[in-house]
Design brief:
The protein has five helices and four strands; from the N terminus they run βαβαβααβα. By secondary structure, the protein is of the alpha/beta class. 17% of the residues are buried.
């Protein structure tokens, strides 16, 4: 079974901790962000990654492209512009059908 992971600053991650998510990555710098995303790509046990939207904008271009095109793990941005439409698009890309 694949796990849910969360990447964000400690304030963003707090609610996920309280909800019982175990794979939580606190990042406070761009270097930590890049290292964390690369680590997640290397793990086979993570299926969905919730990322604070603001952090995705700070990724280097090549890594951002990899995140955008990744099906497994699927990266979902929350906050600001992330949300339902992005999840809808990720599902469509993953299975080839628009469920909405």
């Amino acid at each position: 079974m694949k796990k849910l992971a969360v990447v964000g600053d400690p304030d963003f991650n707090l609610g996920f901790r309280l909800a019982g998510v175990r794979d939580i990555f606190d990042v406070t710098s761009d270097e930590e962000l890049v290292k964390t995303v690369e680590e997640i790509f290397g793990r086979k046990d993570i299926g969905v990654v919730v990322v604070k939207h603001e952090l995705l904008k700070r990724l280097p271009v090549a890594l951002k492209r990899a995140v955008d095109e990744s099906v497994e793990p699927t990266f979902v941005a929350l906050g600001e512009e992330g949300g339902v439409e992005e999840i809808r698009e990720k599902i469509r890309k993953a299975i080839g059908v628009d469920l909405w």
